[in-house]
Amino acid sequence: MSTTSRPPRLTLGHTTKAVRDLDAMVAFYTEVLGFEVTNRGTAGDDAELVFISQDPGAHHQIVFVTGLDVPDNQFVLADHLAFRAESVEDLRAIRANLEAAGVDDIIPVTHGNAWSLYFTDPEGNGLECFVDTPWHVAQPFLEPMDLDADDLEAATLAQVDGQPEFQPFDAWRSVFAARLEGA
Fold first, then answer.
1. What is the pLDDT of residues 56-96, one digit of tens each?
2. Is residue 5 part of a domain?
């Protein structure tokens, strides 16, 4: 398949998840992760939908739907939704909320270009909350991370310095932006 012109640029708008226990899922995403319900209603005879968001510019980032077959979940590091957080302090707060909610499958890692927490929701769906680091390294890159390290940035730099494609993330972004523009 080929195109004659550059395809339009797309950004991810939202995701829709079939769920088994709608109330448990809504409680987890609102009470533990801080989402807000923007609407709730029915479609047809069997489906109930709940729309949630944390973005004032997006009516919904996630839609939960009942009344559908729910697929089996896969390995959390490969089958997950990912949410960007603003700071390492936010990741620590998310971890504390998860622990207070009894979530015990939290996996803290660095990808070199991000600090990440992987975990599952009440139905076993994989989730990631992450913060970008100042660097880029070739992917995949995955190493354990001590989120409580006194100097997480220095600890991560020691892990990634010398890795393939190691460079400031801003330099990588500039090159990738030019590539997207066809330069």
1. 999 999 999 998 777 777 766 667 899 999 999 999 999 99
2. no
Q: What is the pLDDT of residues 114-142, one digit of tens each?
A: 999 999 999 999 999 999 999 999 999 99
d(CA 148, CA 175): 33
CA distance 20 to 66: 6
Chain-centroid distance, C-alpha 12: 12
Give the global pTM. Answer: 0.85
Same domain, 37 and 82: no
pLDDT at 36 over 70: yes
In terms of Cα–Cα distance, which of 52, 66, 46 is closest to 15? 52
Judgement on whether residues 118 and 168 belong to the same structural domain of the protein: yes
Helix or strand run (H / E) with residue 62? strand 62-65
**Whether 66 contacts 46, CB under 8 Å:** yes
Task: Supply the pLDDT for residue 180.
Answer: 82
Residues spanned by the domain of 132: 72-183
> Do 80 and 60 belong to one domain?
no
Task: Give yes or no: residues 141 and 85 share one domain.
Answer: yes
- 31-to-102, 145, 151, 167 alpha-carbon distances in Å: 13, 26, 30, 38
